[in-house]
Design a protein that fits this description.
This protein has 506 residues and is of the alpha/beta class. It contains 13 helices and 18 strands. The structure holds 6-O-phosphono-beta-D-glucopyranose. 6-O-phosphono-beta-D-glucopyranose binds next to loops.
Length: 506
């Protein structure tokens, strides 16, 4: 880290859960690896009143509880860099003394104007805090860089996303904005780029000539836990598809960038978003399936349904499962269906991309049942991160029986080094000013535009069913019908990359 990158890392929402669980442990991990500059201050800001000393005690406990890195020997040294300022974040006048306190801290620590403002606060504050910061000049870069980090959701629908974009861009430049999509910080999502573009063998096959369809799954075994209140305003489509899964789809589908410059990569991602074929209102029923988990019993344990969860409306129509079929209208992908599904209370926690290749032009071993199975390349994002290739081999013995076999590589075999968490990677990039793994405003708008017909129909068209599915199953059966081809289904992945099957791992 070069010395003039010394800075203050300001976290709004510093008394909140995300800060405690992810942000502070990630900053500590960076500190231990000597990736923070010598002159560095972590400044916690929120409404709650803490003294520096009390806040340090709380953060020290958080670092131990949500450990990101084994080495705990430098926690005391790290917490010395932590300071705290209470602030009524919606009171414009309060930003005048806040600025003064910030400047006093800078002077005392010999740090110039470089500042990251991380909003770990509810989305309703995204319009407010940046405006108030700008009103006292904390957006100007004459004395050093200023960066603003916001967490998803970036808006609630297209209109609110456009409004947010306008509010932010009034006072801040696009290059100052870092929109966190933590999926982009996952090692294995980045590995998709390396797998695709560092190997000569995949790219020639990675197109409509050889790929039959692409399937992306993000399954979670947990329910909504304590987040019923938030989830009621969101649902699976907004929570997972609009951001994480469309980003993964874009990285799977993008063209090779001309360089590793952030702009070169983000331009290619944006082109994918812009090529998403709009889903027509009359096609919503056949291209999008929604579901909601209902109570069930798993291994003698009663699992409550979504409507029985805390802070959830007993008549809620919010989807906890969403599956989508869509097309990317460009030369590479013309006519190739992409299927995305995500849900809570599914049989296991797994995220993966499956590239299904086309069948051979002539099925020579037609008598053999498994000869009809097509090759699949599974890119596992989590857990058991790795790559699995499924292909046919001769069953030993008489005749020509085909058997599908697995060739798998597990990411854990690559290194015994720890894999940094998504937040650690993204926080580090935000400090370096590298925006490659952050979403640009055009992408956000394009994603909302694409999903608008589905969101509208799910909200307003009472004839669109919300299918119940028992907790611990793979979602509504109707979702199987999205996949056009007879005899083809979703893959039913298990915790171990090489396994699949319909059983529940809960
Ligand atoms: C978050 C969603 O963005 O991603 C959560 O709000 C979801 O509902 C989480 O559980 C999944 O992230 P991960 O990293 O556990 O796959």
């Amino acid at each position: 880290m070069i010395q003039n990158d010394h800075h203050i890392y300001v976290i709004f929402g510093a008394s909140g859960d995300l800060n405690k669980r992810k942000l502070v442990p990630a900053l500590y991990a960076l500190f231990v690896q000597n990736l923070l500059p010598e002159k560095f201050v972590f400044l916690g800001v929120s409404r709650t009143v803490y003294s520096d000393a009390d806040y340090r005690v709380a953060m020290k406990a958080a670092i131990h509880e949500f450990k990101e890195i084994e080495d705990a020997s430098r926690v005391d040294e790290f917490v010395e860099k932590i300071h705290y300022i209470p602030l009524q974040i919606d009171d414009a006048a309060a930003y005048i003394p806040f600025k003064k306190q910030l400047e006093d801290l800078r002077t005392a620590k010999g740090i110039g104007g470089n500042t990251v403002f991380y909003l770990s606060t509810p989305p309703s504050t995204y319009g407010v805090i940046p405006k108030h910061l700008a009103s006292v000049g904390l957006n100007t870069q004459d004395d050093g860089w200023k960066r603003l980090i916001i967490e998803k959701p970036f808006g609630y629908d297209l209109q609110s996303a456009l409004d947010l974009k306008e509010i932010l861009l009034k006072d801040w430049k696009e290059e100052q904005l870092f929109r966190i999509d933590h999926y982009l910080g996952k090692e294995t999502v980045q590995n998709l780029l390396v797998t695709r573009f560092s190997n000569g063998i995949f790219e020639p096959l990675w197109n409509r000539n050889y790929v039959h369809h692409v399937e992306i799954t993000a399954a979670e075994s947990l329910g909504v836990e304590k987040r019923g209140g938030y989830y009621e305003t969101s649902g699976a489509l907004r929570d997972m598809v609009q951001n994480h899964l469309l980003q993964v789809a874009a990285i799977t589908a993008m063209e090779s960038p001309s360089s590793l410059e952030p702009i070169a990569i983000r331009n290619e991602v944006l082109k994918v978003f812009q090529s998403l074929r709009p889903i027509l209102p009359e096609d919503v029923k056949t291209h999008a399936i929604r579901g909601q988990y209902v109570g069930s019993k798993i291994k003698q344990e009663k699992i409550v349904g979504y409507r029985e969860e805390p802070e959830v409306d007993p008549n809620s129509m919010v989807e906890t499962y969403a599956a989508l079929k869509f097309y990317i209208d460009n030369w590479r992908w013309g006519g190739v269906p992409f299927y995305i599904r995500t849900g809570k209370r599914l049989p296991t926690r797994v995220t993966e991309v499956v590239v299904h290749f086309k069948p051979t032009p002539h099925i020579l071993f037609a008598h053999s049942a498994e000869a009809h199975t097509c090759n699949q390349l599974v890119i596992r994002i989590q857990p058991d991160e790795g790559i699995l290739f499924k292909f046919g081999m001769k069953t030993p013995g008489a005749g020509f029986e085909v058997q599908q076999v697995n060739m798998d590589f597990h990411y854990s075999d690559l290194t015994n080094q720890r894999i940094p968490s998504a937040y650690e990677r993204l926080i580090y990039d935000s400090i370096k000013g590298d925006s490659t793994l952050f979403a640009r405003s055009e992408e956000v708008v394009a994603a909302w535009t694409f999903l608008s017909p589905v969101l509208d129909a799910w909200k307003n068209d009472k004839t669109v069913p919300l299918h119940g599915y028992p907790a611990g199953t793979w979602g509504p059966e109707m979702a199987d019908e999205l996949i056009e081809e007879k005899d083809m289904t979703w893959r039913y992945p298990c915790k171990n990359l090489a396994d699949d099957g319909l059983y529940c791992e809960l």
